[in-house]
Design brief:
Strand content: 15-25%
Number of strands: 12
Helix content: 25-40%
Strand order of the largest sheet: 8-7-6-11-9-12-10
Largest sheet: 7 strands, parallel
Order of helices and strands: EHEHEHHEHEHEHEHEHEEHEHEH
Mean pLDDT: 95
Length: 272
């Protein structure tokens, strides 16, 4: 069981993992470099532990100690108990969910390892909004996608906002980064995947016409909010696909579009 320690100084160096959580640029640099990520809220902390991530430390308000007792008892990590006002000083925001855990990152697998047993994968290009990353991972997990591949400039799925929006789904869907873009797509295609580029372009086939759920191995590629897929990515795809729009709407938010497309890709897929 981890030691439970009451802390009353916001400058205590033991709280270093939890400082300045609202400084996005700082945390994006710090967390991968220091090998950590932050899990926020009871459910997310539990899911991170269940997924095998090691705990470095916890930051709790007093009333959450009993709630998280079983998690505390299973870990050797120290538990820092603070007043809510002090937690806000340290993190930069009101921690209304009451429980934060600093978790140890694991090395990312190679794309080949992620793809080896997959049949339905997501490929993301330049999706650098953490909320969209979290929403996409949550839909991917819920709708049965097997893995996610990220272009080199995609946002970090383990950033606190991504983890929170996904409700911990980032822990349950395997993912990897392609080292080169879009050249890395050849790795996907060489393993027998048909790369479908999701675009609102009227020249694209509808998802119904394409029938991706009948294909043996499918990689569905999505681009960033607003700009969509780059011309290079579209050129590298095997087929362009689109979601038909009505009432003058030209496109959906990437998170919503992903959910619709994931269902089209996985509907009728045999359960394994």
């Amino acid at each position: 069981m981890g030691e439970i320690i009451t802390v009353d100084d916001p400058a205590d160096p033991r709280l270093h993992d939890f400082t300045d959580l609202t400084d996005v640029e700082l945390r994006r640099r710090r967390e991968p470099a220091e090998g950590l990520f932050i899990a926020e809220g009871e459910k997310v902390v539990r899911r991170a532990g269940d997924a095998g991530y090691g705990m470095r430390s916890m930051l709790l308000s007093r009333k959450w100690v009993d709630v998280m007792r079983d998690v505390i008892d299973r870990s050797d990590a120290p538990v820092y108990v603070v007043e809510p006002a002090l937690a806000e000083q340290v993190t930069g925001y009101h921690v209304h969910r009451g429980a934060l855990a600093s978790m140890q990152r694991r090395p990312l697998p190679d794309p080949d390892d992620v793809l080896r047993t997959a049949r339905r994968v997501v490929v993301l290009e330049s999706v650098n909004d953490h909320t969209n990353i979290g929403a996409i991972f949550r839909s991917a997990a819920a709708l049965g996608m097997d893995a996610v591949l990220l272009s080199p400039d995609c946002a970090d799925p383990l950033y606190r906002r991504s983890v929170k929006v996904s409700m911990g789904a980032v822990f349950s869907v395997p993912y990897a980064r392609l080292e080169t873009w879009p050249k890395g797509l050849t790795t996907v295609q060489n393993l027998g995947f048909t790369v479908l580029a999701l675009t609102p372009d009227e020249r694209a086939h509808t998802l119904d016409e394409t029938a991706p759920h009948r294909m043996d191995r499918v990689a569905l590629m999505l681009g960033a909010e607003g700009t969509g897929l780059s011309p290079r990515a579209l050129s590298a795809a095997d087929t362009w696909v689109r979601i038909p729009m009505s009432h003058g709407v030209d496109s959906l938010n990437v998170g919503a579009a992903a959910a619709v497309a994931f269902y089209a890709v996985t509907a009728g897929r045999p359960q394994e």
